[in-house]
Design brief:
With 144 residues, this protein is of the alpha/beta class. It contains seven helices and four strands, in the order βαβαβαβαααα. It has a four-stranded parallel beta sheet, covered by helices on one side. The longest helix has 18 residues. The model has no long low-confidence stretch (mean pLDDT 87).
Length: 144
């Protein structure tokens, strides 16, 4: 089972998004495959052992490095692209989550960043990386 923790500053917007995602998971009959929960970012350290990945709301990108210094984080952190966060489609989030976990295991880099997305404010995608560009390994091989 893929377990995704969505975090925002106070839990309000991530709570709404998590509930929306829960409805999409149920509609897709994927309850046995994916679990989505939300927490305020400040309480994430208490919950992160129960999850495979932490998806952070866009406004948290500036606090991630501090978070990584303060806590022993053993799962990948990822900042959701702004447009993607606004739409929050279950299939797209789940696909990015799987790829984020894979990138983390392959590179050990945290926070995880997809190829060609290091300049966060310029990331305009609203679908998963794989939906738009294919397997990120292909991008890496083309630009090696």
């Amino acid at each position: 089972m893929l377990r995704i923790l969505i975090c925002c500053g106070g839990g309000l917007s991530s709570g709404y998004m998590a509930r929306y995602m829960e409805d999409e998971v149920k509609a897709a009959h994927a309850e046995a495959e994916v679990f989505v929960d939300f927490q305020p970012f400040a309480t994430a350290p208490r919950k992160m052992a129960d999850f495979d990945v932490i998806f952070c709301c866009p406004h948290l990108r500036t606090g991630i490095l501090k978070f990584l210094k303060e806590y022993q984080v053993t799962i990948p952190l990822y900042v959701i692209p702004m447009r993607m966060y606004g739409l929050m489609h279950f299939n797209e989030i789940a696909q990015d989550a799987r790829d984020v976990i894979q990138i983390y295991h392959e590179t050990g880099a945290n926070p995880v960043v997809f190829p060609n997305e290091t300049d966060y404010p310029k990331v305009q995608r609203f679908k998963s990386y794989r939906s738009l560009y294919g397997d990120y390994h292909q991008y890496l091989n083309l630009h090696a």
